[in-house]
Design brief:
28% of the residues lie in helices and 18% in strands. It has helices at 3-17, 22-31, 90-96, 108-124, 178-181, 219-237, 288-297, 308-312, 340-352; strands at 38-42, 76-80, 101-106, 131-135, 138-143, 148-154, 160-164, 167-171, 186-189, 206-209, 212-214, 244-248, 302-305. Strands 4-5-6-3-9-12-13 form a 7-stranded mixed sheet, sandwiched between helices. Strands 7-8-10-11 form a 4-stranded mixed sheet, covered by helices on one side. Strand 12 (244-248), helix 7 and strand 13 form a beta-alpha-beta unit.
């Protein structure tokens, strides 16, 4: 085993030895319960909305429109073990954030969640005018009557990728996007989906860590270094009296059916029901402990939206063969809408408005 790979293994082992769910810990102290522990239950009143009422939803997430024939995946509600999840009230959300800017920063899974939230808000005030403007990597969904903007900035790694003579350089210690982040009243970050991509899907050629460059390194080690750079940015630039910061935890994929104990399947294709119960047979996600460790050490207040386990249970929630690419481009990473990201936003609502609990 190479020295970099060994370092990555030791890092993950060390983080697991110091495991602890920061998001749950903080919510227990603040709200006396953990909304991230529970199970999925059938609810005939679900889903929360019909995607046809939100014409701005990306084609890749609209699984029913893309021909998905089953609908049981739409009928499951998240039920925390020790409490009742508060109802998402979009009108209250808009009133309480009147004159504010909410910014999602991350990859296409963050886009998935942003689209869910904009749809939920739109359907809460269906007669209210809205605008949707896309400029480069920034999308802004606004409700003029409330002067509320819900934005999405595509930034898969959070740290910089810079074109240089040597190629595209992933700089693990550099963030140049922070000026935009400083303009938001609520920041919701995520990063993971692109960290394991290789070959043609890999958007960089070289990794730079301080003054050293590498053709590649253990991806968990690189991820940890980048998240620590993001944490330093938060500590240096966020004023918690003005800005709320949330990190949405790892969104898992379901590309290997052995993770949920089904040796007869291959991936998420054909899955129509969740893994029932409160635990995932495949265990914790390998990057989960890294996120928790980084968030725990930040001196500023950052909430961890700890959705990893509850999302692991939803092997049925992906577009699979009913995404943008159809059967030739199986998608077991993103989520159908309506679907799992709606629950993430219900949990986001509970975290943003703890008095609603």
């Amino acid at each position: 085993m190479g020295s970099v790979a060994l370092a990555g293994t030791l890092l993950v082992v060390a983080l697991f030895l110091h495991r602890g769910v920061y998001g749950a810990y903080e919510l227990k102290n603040d709200n006396k319960y953990d909304i991230f522990q529970g199970k999925w239950v059938y609810d005939p009143k679900y889903p929360l909305y019909n995607a046809s009422n939100c014409p701005f939803i990306e084609q890749e997430f609209d699984c029913r429109k893309n021909g998905r024939p089953d609908n049981m995946y739409l009928k499951y509600r998240w039920k925390p073990t020790s409490c009742k999840l508060p109802r998402f009230r979009g009108g209250v959300f808009l009133e309480r954030f009147r004159g504010k800017r909410i910014l999602f920063v991350g990859d296409s899974i963050s886009l998935n969640q942003w689209q869910s939230l904009t749809c939920m808000l739109h359907l809460a005030v269906p007669k209210a005018k809205y605008t949707l403007i896309r400029t480069g990597g920034l999308s802004t969904f606004s409700f003029p009557a409330h002067n509320v903007s819900v934005m999405f900035s595509r930034n898969a790694f959070l740290v910089d990728i810079v074109g240089e003579k040597s190629g595209r350089v992933l700089k693990l210690n550099s963030i140049s996007s922070g000026d935009l982040w400083k303009t938001a009243d609520v920041l919701i970050f995520d990063s993971w989906h692109w960290w394991l991509h290789t070959g043609r899907k890999q958007p960089w050629d070289i990794i730079q860590d301080m003054n050293n460059t590498y053709k590649d390194m253990n991806r968990l080690v690189a991820y940890s270094k980048a998240l620590n750079t993001w944490a330093k940015w938060v500590n240096s630039n966020v004023d918690n009296s003005k800005t709320k910061v949330i990190f949405r935890a790892i969104s898992p994929d379901h590309m290997n059916s052995s993770d949920w104990g089904d040796r007869n399947a291959k991936n998420c294709i054909g899955e129509t029901r969740p893994v029932m119960g409160r635990s995932y047979p495949g265990g914790r996600h390998p990057a989960e402990a890294i996120v928790e460790n980084v968030v725990r050490k930040i001196s500023k207040k950052v909430r961890l939206l700890n959705v990893t386990t509850l999302s692991q249970l939803r092997k049925d929630g992906h577009p699979s063969a009913y995404g943008y690419g159809g059967p030739r481009a199986t998608d077991c990473s993103h989520w159908c809408l309506p679907g799992v990201p709606d629950t993430w936003n219900q949990l986001l609502y509970a975290v943003l408005f703890p008095d609603s609990n």
